[in-house]
Amino acid sequence: MRPLLAVDGLTKHFPVRGGLLNRTQAMVQAVDDVSFTVEAGETLGIVGESGCGKSTTARLLMHQVPLDRGTIAFDGKAIGSREALSRRDLHRQMQMVFQDSYASLNPRLPVSMSIAFGPLAHGLAKPAALARAMDLLEAVGLDPLLFANRYPHELSGGQRQRINVARALALEPRLVILDEAVSALDKSIEAQVLNLLVDLKQRLDLTYIFISHDLNVVRFISDRVMVMYLGKIVEYGPVDRIYRAPRHPYTKALLLAMPSMDPRRRTQEAPLSGDPPNPINPPSGCRFRTRCPFAEAVCADVPPALTADDGGRAVACHMLSPGSGHSRA
Amino acid sequence: MVDTPAIAIADPVETLRRAQQGKSYWKRVWERLRQDKVTLAMAAVLTALLIMVIFAPWFTAHDPYQGSVLRRLKPVGFPGHWLGTDEVGRDLWSRMVFGGRLSLLAGVMPVFLALLVGGFLGILAGYAGGLVNSAIMRLVDVLYAFPSILLAIAITGILGAGLENTILALTIAFVPPLVRISEAVTTQARHLDFVEAARASGASTLQILRYHILNNVLGPILVYATSLISIGIILAAGLSFLGLGVTPPSAEWGLMLNNLRQALWVDPVICALPGVMIFITSMCFNLLSDGLRQAMDVRL
Description:
The structure holds two protein chains of two kinds. By secondary structure, chain A is α/β, with parallel strands linked by helices. Chain A has helices spanning about 55-60, 85-95, 110-120, 125-140, 145, 155-170, 185-205, 215-220, 240-245, 250-255, 295-300, and strands spanning about 5-20, 25-40, 45, 70-75, 75-80, 95, 175-180, 205-210, 225-230, 230-240, 305-310, 315.
């Protein structure tokens, strides 16, 4: 079966300008050679520290920023090439929910209009678009009679994020990108919205890309997980295998840092110290080597390739590829 | 694009009816405005002034241009001329009312024209960004470098005195600040998440402008333009006072102030009257714009 979304070699380097004549001084390697696929009906979780390229990846997928290199194919059709999907069609198939629930709604429009805007922009008559908005309000668990005419500042954070979900669904997309969509909510509200997302996914046959820094949430909602570090994928595979037996040292450290409910499993010391290096001049070879307890000479010379095993998991680490020259390989 | 939606429809007719009877943003602004006594009073004064000026002959007994050598500089309360007469014996009340026509026209018209030009350029610059923005804003900066009164004096100085030239000069003087304001609020609005989201829904630029940019941008621009009207009236009067605006014997508040100046020692009250009108009108517009700004800030 062909994947719903196939991303190959996605790269985005942002120029840092300055100095005389506004010349490019350096490049921020926000996303560097990232490849992955999303199957129809699954949820792909993307995790990583701030600045690892999660959100840039989402914005590249939505074509909000132009990509430097790489291809994105939606349902077998390349995006951006000639015979391909136009941006307008793409946006009908792929929608996004942002983190800031307040900023992503127009304060001057009643929420029903915010939801109806997408269908309206795609040529639906206004009454029909508004009727669609009413249905969607119902679907995200808000009573249309109470909420349709409210303005964003009259709603709570959870209610606003439900509106944003409804807005994203208004064009009946097949893929929804949730960029830290629940991160700004209270824990109890977060759980409600997560349950809503799971419920909607089943009812409407959706596919999700779920971006978060919250590992528990990602574990709850995802089928597969992709761990990113400094613009690169370090590990990628089914959620159970990764959470039960992480193989990349970064994934291990990340999971160890996860707060536990069990008082006997208390974290005594930080498994990783320091901040990620500057993405303007990432370390040579393996980008994680500066913080990796097992780094050796080979890690500085050769960038590890992302190699997949038969279980659908891929890891980019020299320790896991025999013959790489690493003493633990 | 729509076939049957995947979600069950509750009661489309009823929900739709409820949705459409909701209060729009402007209705809410009006409701808040109605409770603001000061702003309402200012609006009432201005409306009264406007009616009086438009139907000037109904409110005046004398021809504003008919002088009389025998009745020069009569004081306030003089029989037959309740506000007295000016230096050539013309009825001052008539001249005040008729003078309002030119003064208001010369104050309001430039702001309106500059709002059209400046608002368009500013929103264009703000939304387009990049090179278009730089080109428009640098051009505007050139004009902005001059104080508006100096710019207006220079333009009327070149073009000559007269009502049309006064309006043109003030319009040119008011375009730069309006471009500035429009550009600033549009640039701010353009980078908000909801505009990104609108773009992500595949909407055209026009649709985004119509539904998402204009309603966030027009309020502040209109408020600012209202505050410019008072400056416009003062500047127009100032130009006339300097002899660069409306020419005698036209009735215009600034010009009247200039002509009556020579009679300051005879009757200071009469000389001050046109100034009082300028003061009242500009004050009203200022307070009105303050009230509008408060009413439009619906976010609390």
